[in-house]
C-alpha cells in the first residue's frame, strides 16, 4: 500500500512561531484607536450645479439647505465645529455643540449645514446671517436657534470613511441620528422621482435639491459625485460699489456687483431689493470704510450711473432668476453678507 503524499508545511520554518501582521501604530493623541487617525480637517465635497437631475437609480436625493457648510469634529480632546474654510466656529453654535456632546464618546466627523428656520420651518439664510452677526465677532442672541442638518459621515469610531461608498456612509449616519431632533438632525433622504421632488420643494419655497451618487467615495471638491438643482439661482458675488439714494441719504440706492471671469472681476449688475432700512445703513457704514482710492474703478464699467466704488472685499449672497444675454443678473435680490471665514466661492463666469 502506497503512502499518501506528504503535505507541505503551512510555514517554512516549523519551529518558528506563527505571527500575525503588525498592527497599525497607535496615534499618541488617540491612544484608544487602533485604526485610522482622525484627520485634522477634511476639504468638503461640493455639488455641481445642474439644470436637470441626472437619470438613473444610482442617486440619493435630499433638500438643499440654505445656510453655512460646517464639519462637526467629535474628538478625544473635545469638540470642534469648523467652517468650510477651516475656521473654528465652535463658540458660535452653542446648541450644535451641546448636541454634539450628547453623541459622544465615539469619535466622528459629521458633514452638514447650519441653518436657522423661519416661522414656517423653512431655512432662512438672512436669519442665520443675523444670528451670527455681520462682523465675525461673538454670536448674537439667535445663535442658539441654529440647527445642524447632517448629510454625511466622514469618520467614525476610528475608521476613515472617505474611501467607503456613499450608501454605506449614509447607512451609518441614519443609525447614528435617526430620531434626533435637537441641535443636530438628520437631513432626510427623499424617496421620489427627482423631477417631482424639485417641483414640490420649489412650491414650498425651498432652495432646491441635492443628489449624491450611491456608489461613490467621499471626494473633496466638485467632482460630479454630488449635484444640485436649484429652484431659484443664488450665488456669492463681490460688492464693488453703490449708487447714492435721495430717499435714503444714510443708505444707498443699490449695490454694484461683480463676479470673476478668469482672474479678472467683471460687472454683473446691481441689486436694489431685499434690504431692510437698518441693513442699508449698516452696510453703507461698512462700505464707506472700504472706499476705492484710485482713479480707475476696480473693474471695467460702461454704465452712466454715478458709482461710489469700494474695495472688492465684502461678499453678498444674491438670489436671481436668470442671466441676461449680456451677462447681467435678472431680477436680483439681496439675501445677506457672506463672512470671509465661511470661504464662500465668488461666482465665476464661464
TrEMBL record:
<dbReference type="InterPro" id="IPR012310">
    <property type="entry name" value="DNA_ligase_ATP-dep_cent"/>
</dbReference>
<dbReference type="Pfam" id="PF01068">
    <property type="entry name" value="DNA_ligase_A_M"/>
</dbReference>
<dbReference type="Pfam" id="PF04679">
    <property type="entry name" value="DNA_ligase_A_C"/>
</dbReference>
<dbReference type="InterPro" id="IPR014146">
    <property type="entry name" value="LigD_ligase_dom"/>
</dbReference>
<dbReference type="GO" id="GO:0005524">
    <property type="term" value="F:ATP binding"/>
</dbReference>
<feature type="region of interest" description="Disordered">
    <location>
        <begin position="1"/>
        <end position="38"/>
    </location>
</feature>
<dbReference type="GO" id="GO:0006310">
    <property type="term" value="P:DNA recombination"/>
</dbReference>
<keyword id="KW-0436">Ligase</keyword>
<protein>
    <recommendedName>
        <fullName>DNA ligase (ATP)</fullName>
        <ecNumber>6.5.1.1</ecNumber>
    </recommendedName>
</protein>
<dbReference type="InterPro" id="IPR012340">
    <property type="entry name" value="NA-bd_OB-fold"/>
</dbReference>
<comment type="similarity">
    <text>Belongs to the ATP-dependent DNA ligase family.</text>
</comment>
<feature type="domain" description="ATP-dependent DNA ligase family profile">
    <location>
        <begin position="139"/>
        <end position="230"/>
    </location>
</feature>
<keyword id="KW-0614">Plasmid</keyword>
<dbReference type="InterPro" id="IPR050191">
    <property type="entry name" value="ATP-dep_DNA_ligase"/>
</dbReference>
<dbReference type="GO" id="GO:0003910">
    <property type="term" value="F:DNA ligase (ATP) activity"/>
</dbReference>
<dbReference type="GO" id="GO:0006281">
    <property type="term" value="P:DNA repair"/>
</dbReference>
<dbReference type="InterPro" id="IPR012309">
    <property type="entry name" value="DNA_ligase_ATP-dep_C"/>
</dbReference>
Amino acid at each position: 500500500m502506497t503512502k499518501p503524499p506528504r503535505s507541505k508545511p503551512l510555514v517554512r520554518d516549523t519551529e518558528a512561531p506563527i505571527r500575525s501582521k503588525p498592527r497599525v501604530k497607535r496615534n499618541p493623541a488617540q491612544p484608544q484607536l487602533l485604526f485610522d487617525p482622525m484627520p485634522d480637517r477634511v476639504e468638503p465635497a461640493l455639488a455641481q450645479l445642474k439644470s436637470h437631475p441626472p437619470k438613473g437609480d444610482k442617486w440619493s436625493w435630499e433638500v438643499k439647505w440654505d445656510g453655512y457648510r460646517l464639519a462637526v469634529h467629535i474628538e478625544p480632546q473635545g469638540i470642534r465645529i469648523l467652517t468650510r474654510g477651516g475656521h473654528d466656529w465652535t463658540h458660535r453654535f452653542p446648541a450644535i455643540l451641546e448636541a454634539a456632546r450628547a453623541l459622544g464618546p465615539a469619535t466622528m466627523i459629521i458633514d452638514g449645514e447650519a441653518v436657522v428656520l423661519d416661522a414656517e420651518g423653512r431655512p432662512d439664510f438672512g436669519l442665520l446671517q443675523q444670528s451670527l452677526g455681520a462682523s465675525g465677532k461673538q454670536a448674537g442672541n439667535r445663535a442658539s436657534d441654529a440647527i445642524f442638518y447632517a448629510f454625511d459621515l466622514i469618520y467614525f469610531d476610528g475608521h476613515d470613511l472617505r474611501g467607503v461608498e456613499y450608501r454605506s456612509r449614509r447607512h451609518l449616519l441614519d443609525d447614528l441620528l435617526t430620531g434626533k431632533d435637537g441641535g443636530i438632525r438628520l437631513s432626510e433622504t427623499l424617496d421620489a422621482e427627482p423631477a417631482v421632488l424639485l417641483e414640490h420643494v420649489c412650491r414650498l419655497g425651498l432652495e432646491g435639491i441635492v443628489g449624491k451618487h450611491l456608489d461613490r467615495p467621499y471626494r473633496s471638491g466638485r467632482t460630479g459625485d454630488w449635484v444640485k438643482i436649484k429652484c431659484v439661482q443664488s450665488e456669492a458675488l463681490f460688492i464693488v460699489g453703490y449708487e447714492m439714494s435721495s430717499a435714503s441719504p444714510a443708505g444707498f440706492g443699490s449695490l454694484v456687483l461683480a463676479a470673476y471671469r478668469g482672474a479678472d472681476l467683471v460687472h454683473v449688475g446691481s441689486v436694489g431689493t431685499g434690504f431692510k432700512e437698518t441693513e442699508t445703513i449698516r452696510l453703507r457704514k461698512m462700505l464707506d470704510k472700504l472706499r476705492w482710492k484710485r482713479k480707475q474703478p476696480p473693474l471695467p464699467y460702461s454704465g452712466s450711473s454715478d458709482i461710489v466704488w469700494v474695495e472688492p472685499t465684502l461678499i453678498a449672497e444674491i438670489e436671481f432668476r436668470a442671466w441676461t444675454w449680456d451677462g447681467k443678473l435678472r431680477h436680483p435680490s439681496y439675501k445677506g453678507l457672506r463672512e470671509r471665514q465661511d470661504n464662500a466661492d465668488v461666482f465665476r463666469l464661464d
